[in-house]
Structures are given as C-alpha cells and as structure tokens.
Write the structure tokens for this entry.
Amino acid sequence: MNKPLRRIALFCGLLVLTLLIRDNWLQYVKADELKTDDRNRRVLIERYAAPRGDIIVDGKAITGHATTDGDFKYKRTYKDGAMWAPVTGYVSQAFGATQLEAIDDGILTGNDDRLFFRNTLDMLTGKKREGGNVVTTLNSAAQKAAYDGLKAQGGKGAVAAIEPSTGKILALASYPSYDPSSIAGGGDSDAKAWKSLLKENNKDDPTLNRALREVYPPGSTFKVLTAAAALENGLYKSADEKTDSPLPWTMPGTTQELPNEGDLPCKDATLREALRVSCNTVFGKIGSDLGNEKMLEMAKKFGFTEEQFVPVRSAASVFSDDMEPSQVALSSIGQFNTAATPLQMAMVTSAIANNGTLMQPYMVDELQAPNLDTIEKTEPEEMSKPLSADNAQILQSMMETVVKDGTGTNAQLSGVTVGGKTGTAQHGVDNSENPYAWFISYAKQSDGSAPVAVAVVVEDENASRDDISGGGLAAPIAKNVMRAVLDSKK
Amino acid sequence: MSSTSNSPTHHTSTIGAIGAPSRRNTELALLVFAVVIPVFAYANVGLAVNDEVPAGLLSYGLGLGLLAAVGHLVVRKFAPYADPLLLPLATLLNGLGLVAIWRLDQSELLQSIQQAGTAAPRQLMYTAMGIALFLVVLIFLKDHRVLQRYTYISMVGALILLLLPLVPGLGQNIYGAKIWIKVGSFSIQPGEFAKIVLAIFFAGYLMVKRDALALASRRFMGLYLPRGRDLGPILVVWIVSILILVFETDLGTSLLFFGMFVIMLYVATERTSWIVFGLLMSAVGAVGVASFEPHIQQRVDAWLDPLREYKLSQQGVGGHSEQAMQALWAFGSGGTLGTGWGQGHSDLIRFAANSDFILATFGEELGLAGLMALLLLYALIVERGVRTALAARDPFGKLLAIGLSGAFALQVFIVAGGVMGLIPLTGMTMPFLAYGGSSVIANWALIGLLLRISDTARRPAPAPANPDAEMTQVVRP
C-alpha cells in the first residue's frame, strides 16, 4: 500500500504548490493592480485616513478637518465655506473633488510624487502621512468685501479682483454660493445637501463658480477694449481728439440705427467724452471701422477665446469671427455674441492699470510640504502686451474721467485715483431677462502703481435698464473691494 | 506490512522499544511556541486597533495555554508515541484563527451589519468543545481498529449526516448552499462530521473488498478495468456526491467526498485505473450538474469574472455577491509583507469575512510571506497525516489515516483555492482558522484520530516479560 500512499503524498504536495503559486500570482504579480484599483475601497479609505492639508489665505487656513464615523476617518471642513467656495471648490467623501481641492489633491493628501522621499522617510520613522498646504494669493478682506457686497445685493453675481503688477488673484466671489462643508462627508445629510445643490433641483445653481465659469455679455465695459484697439491701431491718437462719429449712426450694411442710452452728446465726441457718457455710436463705429480681424486680435491679446488656468480652469470668453460689420459694431459695445467671464474683465482692467502689460492670473502662490517647506512657488509671468504704455496711460486717464465725473462716480475713493467703466448688458430673447450690471475698475496710488483691478457683475431684477445701473449696483461693491485691498496694504 | 504480534519473544519488538522515543517533550516545546505566537499576534491586533494591549490578553493566553496543556497531558498519558507535530500545528492554527476572528470582531463595519463582535468568545468555546472531543477520542478509543466494527453503522451515520440539511425545517439555505442545519440557536454543518464518519466507512469497506477490487479485473489499453459488479460502490458514492451537488448545491462538499473516496480506493487497490475513472466521473458530474443548476452556474460565472459579479452586486442585482472581488482586493492590498495585524480592511468582504473568507484577512494583514507560511503549516499537517498512514501497520489504519489527511488536503485546497480565485467558490471553511463550531470540533476529532493511529503505529510492542531472561540466554552458552 505504500507506493500509492507516496503518490498521494506527492499529489497533496502538488495541491499545496498550486496554492502557493496562485498566492504569489495574487499577492506579488497582481498586487499593485489590485491595490490601486479605483473600485478597491482601500484607495478611498487611505485617502481619508489622514487629515487633509489646508488651503491658506493671508497666513490663515480657510479649511480644516473633522473626524467622521465609518471607515473614512477624516472629512473636510471649511470656514466661511460659502464665501470661499469659488476658490476652494469642494472635496467630499461621496462626491469627489473639484477646483483647487481636485487640482492640488496630491499635495493636500500628501500623496504627491514630490513628497515621495519625505513620505518614505516618514514611513521608516513610523510617522503618519500628512498633507501639505496650498497657499493662495487671495486677500481675505477683499474676498469678504466682494462676497458681502454680492450678498447684500441679493441677486446672482460674481467678483474677480487681480493685482495688476503680478496677476495675483485677490478676490474670487460668486453668489449665490454653497457651503462645501455640507457635502464633505458621506452621510445621509450630505447626500441630501448634495441633491439640493444640483442644478435640476435648484434654479440658483449655487455650485456654479460664476467668477470663472460663467460668461456674461460685458456690455459697455467692453468699450475700454474697443478704445484700446482704436489707440493701438492708430485710428485715433489721443483721448481728446475728435472722433469721426455721426449721430445718429446707421450700422453699415443695414438700415438700422445704433441707439445710445438716452440723448447723449456723442456726435464726433472725443474718446474721453464717449467713454464718460458711454456712447454706443462712437464705439460701435470704431469696431466696424477697425473690422472683425483687428477687434478679435485685440480681444485675444487680452485673453479672450482661451480658457485660463489659474490653475482652476476658467471658461473661455467669446469674441466671434466671421461677423458682418454691423455685428462687429454690436460686438464692440459688448453685445451680440460677445461674452466674458468676470475674471476676463478683471484681466482687461488689470492690463490697462499695469501700463499695457497683462500678467498671467494665478491664485496659488505656493505649495507647501507638511513641514511648510516650499515645494513649488508660482512666479508672476507676463501673458501678453495688449497695448503700449503710452496708450495704456491714455486709456487710464479716460477711465479716471469716467469715475471722476462720468457714470462711475460711485466708485470714487479718497486718497487714490480710481479708473473704471460701467456696463449694463441686456440678454434674453428681446432683452426679456434681467440685465447684468457691470463695473470694472482699478485703484492707482500716488506713485503710479495700481494694487488692484476688479470686475463686478450683478444680475438684479431691480436694475433699471439704463447704463447708470452698472454704476449704481456694481460700482459700490468694486469700491469696497478696492478699499479692502488698499487698507490691507497699509 | 510488519506483524504486530505481541509475542514477548518476537525479535523486532526489542529493537522497536529502543528505537522509538516518545517525542512528548518535543511536542511540549513546540506547544509553547504554538501558544506564544498567537498571544503575541493578539497583543499586536490590540495595539494596532485600539493602541493598547488588549484587556483579555491574559485570559486569552491562559485559556489557549490551558487547552493546549490539557491536550498535551492527555496525549502524554494515553497516546505517548503519537506524532509530536500534529497537536502543536492544530493549536497554532486554532490560536491564529481566534486572533483573526477577534480582530474582525473589532471592525465597526462588521458589527453594524450582523451580530458580530462576539464571535471570538464563541469560537474559544467551540475550541474547548473541540479539544474535549479530541480528548474523548484519545481516552476512550484505545485502538483505532475498534472502529472497523462500525463500518456499516458509519455508512448509515454518514448518509444521515449528509442528508440532514435537506430535511425541511432543519436545513438552512445560506447564500444558495444548503449545507447547514439549525438546531436551537446553533447552525451546524453536518458535512464536517460526515467527512470523518465517511472515512471510517470507506476504510472499513475497502479493507475488506480491496483484494476483489484490485485483482478481479481485465486489462484494457494499459488500464485494469474493474468488473461490472465491483463498480458498484464507486457508482453509489458518485451518485451520492451528485445528489449532494444537486440538492445541496455545494460543489466543494461533493468534490471533497468523491475525492476522498477515490484516494482511498486507489490506495486500497493500487490500481491507477481508479484515479482515471474518478477524474472522469467527477468531471462528468460537475459539468453535467453545472449545466442545469443555476446556483453552480452563478458560482462559476463569479469565478470567471469576479469584477462583473462585483458590479452586479453594487447595482443591487439580487443573488450576486461582492465577496469574491473584495477578497481578491484584500489579497492584492496585502502585497508581499502585508499591512500588519489589525491594519487591513478585509472587513469589506462583510458577510462570512470571519468564516469562509478568513484567509483573505491573513492574506491582507500578513501578506504573501505570512500566507505562504500558513499554507505550509497546513501542508505540514497533511504530511504528518500521510506519514502516519505510511507508518501504520494495519490496512485499516493506513486507509483511515490517508482518507482523513487526503480529505484535509482537499478541503484546504478547495477553500483556499476558492477564496484566492483559483477555482469556483464553495461554502466550506478553512480548518481551524475559520469561525464555526462544526468545523473546529470536527477537525479536532480528526487530529485526535490521526494521533491515535500514529500512536498505535509508533508504539513499541510491550517489552518481553523478563528481559533478563533473554540476556541470560545470550550470555550463557
């Protein structure tokens, strides 16, 4: 009987050997693939196992963390979440992450490759993994002024503010907003909050980042760009030169007259005067005189038609090509297809305030390791030079006139020179919907430096349909944002 | 086979008495390790999960130590020449199983979905019952050959045990497989006990019939074909296995019993043809049943594409389970060295994480290294069992020992292979490791039987009544 016994022993040995081979296949050959599989919940458990790094504004964290029940240990919390939501985005145990939370997820969770060496050391010394920080360029006082201003106004709206000399984003507010803390967890209340935020359940669409992702017809604020194009293309040489502007003016190729908002002194008005009272006829004609190509070229130099990455992606602002001359005229006063994000209009303003140089806008100043070492620092970078310093200064003096004794007097600030432009953009079929009130401005100090450029857009049913409303609704918000920035410089 | 004559003048007995040390001290030394290792593992889990040495460490260590000590003392007294490795190996596996079950008791996820959280104390109780049965076997079964008398009673007993889950009101259907019965608040897997009783029946039956089965055959294409009437028994066992497969829908149990029978038949007759027949019949049976039994089909589908099965279960499609894929993720996440005790997430397997799928916990937390060591511990148990069969001096003992160790090896392969995705999953559990009273108790009895056979095999025949007399004969010419 012993011969078959030995064979059975061999057979049992083969069974065990098969198991050992299978085990090696699973736990050695396929281990990484199984371990990092998206559906493997351990990936998420690991993600929420350590407190997430913070997003920093003015040296203070605007985020935090809290412990949760279940296998996800930590969740994100936000201080003044609704105010900062357009900056931070959200990170949720159940609903993923967006914006800064998503873009710098690696740093915040501590899993970024650039932290690999440090993590390996920590693993050897038994230290727990920690997340790094994202230090933003934002200014909390300016952000608060922007958000509070929008909130007081009550309608939908957005604010973007930039430091013209560097491109640093100082404020980025959107209203109505949402508190990302409410959806940070994975519980029932988070799911309920999430559902109530979805666009199909909430016509206010609070999760929309209007400062970056919504394009609005810029209305009369676009006239500064048209003026820049006129100066740059040599159509007019100075602010005080009479323009060739008949009144009334019939748009070329049509029999339709382009109306002004009221009985304005627009006939052959100077650029300064035309901007001060916001003449549609003057700037419409400039646009059609220059033509589609030149207007588009200027718009592109200011950043139109391209998505901006700050590093959060912004929507591309629109200036069409292949337009009829009449359509170019309408586009040049910020109507027809022309549409811009608040960030885009802040960029236009900042380039003018920065003597013609447009700086690449950005909102992440540096990425920090858990021990606060700098991993990556964003250096200011020139994006383009849409107009010469001389022409920029001409445009500045025109915008300053608008605020001094034009439509933008509501934005006047003592001690600094403010330049700005109002705008009211109609939209909807036959202008049936509430118009958008715009205001763009910058504040210039006595040494000629401009620490802030801001763009405000407000949609309000109470807005009157004339050009003053930009100055009435949006200018006070812009003023408060500028003052907050100036005060924090002191 | 050597004679076991008790004649005092027999030549070999004197040599045997000198040549076979009892090895009980070896066993004691190994037992110390078998108790100390799980105690350290237990402390490790506590430190990892709660940042403190668990409060129950002392009582747990003492409990396991006490059980091992009683086991050892009874072996020393009643089976002094038994194999020294089997008791420590079983103790170690049982201890590690308790640690893993306690570790899963700590999982909030498992606590929230079932009345888990108290599995470890129950398992300790089952262990005590298992060791009690082990002691009963050693104390009251003086010689395993006594069991030969119960050959046909065993057959009846095994059939009853196998058919119990089919009795209405008694049987339970848990996730499709009907291999449990419910008595009071206890769920019992009669198959675990049937395994042992069947081995006794097969051994007794084959010992009597082996010559007829082996010799009366015709040669055909290099194979010895059994006579038609000798095919009877294998056909009966095959049909019973198929019936188990059809009515209890458990491929594993069916495969285990049929495999055990074929192994024992082969050893008894030394005819390779039986292996060929066995393989053919199990292939025909398995494929045949799988082609019309939806539960078996589903198990096969889940085995072929566990990810699809996972997705279906996530979509809430009834009858699908995420367990198989979760187990694979657990193994993969463990990698080479594992996460360490208490630091894995094998509780994601949820249902049966501490029983059928307990191997995944070992895979994740001890890694490839730990799991290979664990599998080798099982291999060692099988090796000691086969060695016992080789050493046994009577055919019944040989057959019983190889039947029990062969069944043990098959069970380990079927369960571990199923959990690791090598073969379709079945409803059996890893001997000693998994939570479950039937499995622990039955396997302790199995170890008791193997110890009894090995004691009989290695025990020297009683020394001559007067050794001096023999010496005197030699010295005086």
